[in-house]
Amino acid sequence: MSNFIQTLNDAWQRTNSLLCVGLDPEPSKFPGALAGRPDAIFEFCREIVDATAPYASSFKPQIAYFAAHRAEDQLEQLIAHIHAHHPGLPVILDAKRGDIGSTAEQYAREAFERYQADAVTVNPYMGFDSIEPYLEHEGKGVIVLCRTSNAGGSDLQFLETGGRPLYQVVAQLAAEKWNASGQLGLVVGATFPKEIEVVRGIVGDMPLLIPGIGAQGGDVQATVGAGRTANGTGMLINSSRAIIYAGKGEDFAQAAAKAAMETRERINAFR
Length: 271
Known about the structure:
- It is a single chain.
- The chain is globular.
- Helix 10 links the parallel strand 9 and strand 10.
- Helix 9 packs parallel to helix 10.
- It has one domain: Aldolase class I (TIM Barrel), CATH 3.20.20.
- It is α/β, with parallel strands linked by helices.
- It is built from twelve helices and ten strands.
- The longest helix has 17 residues, at 252-268.
């Protein structure tokens, strides 16, 4: 059985892409043809996935967009569709869970057994206890929030602790103490390329999930230069809204494909 890191490495090489397409479906932004359909969220995302898969190395559905619309069953359907029709492209469930003990065990079961995700995002505020239950699921990836792309992230992540900012302590713990499974990654936002470089220096070749290059305006050249590993990979560079809402009409899937292709090429120009 292949594990998350292996699947990811294979996908990077096979697709020649570092693009992770984020799936944040908001029905109010769907084209008219999908209006009122009970399966609108699945159909919208399925079309986006099928159109962008040739240019992506992973997909990242954000669970809140499904749960808010009582569409968890459509999320199950969507991940099953990705595995069946685009095998080898890992699915990261963006849930940012942060609980401990038996509650965290249930969240891990939800991500890996119910949804069959290859990896899940988690919040490390409660320490290793909030990460360990996910590591019990052999071969599954755990992507830990480290330095996020939102402005308020600095409220905590830049607090000095032991003479350095907290996000660097998180990176070191992830690399040296928490990664017994070898399946850990970190979230580091594209809006802070200098910090991507610092984190890369701390964690070696650990994969970095990097949001913020699309609608949040992160600099692609600076991001790639700061985060790439020696072989030009090591990053899941995420773009969501800039791709999935690239077009507003019935040709939304073709518009998404074009945006995904252009984003992949923009990233590859600096690898």
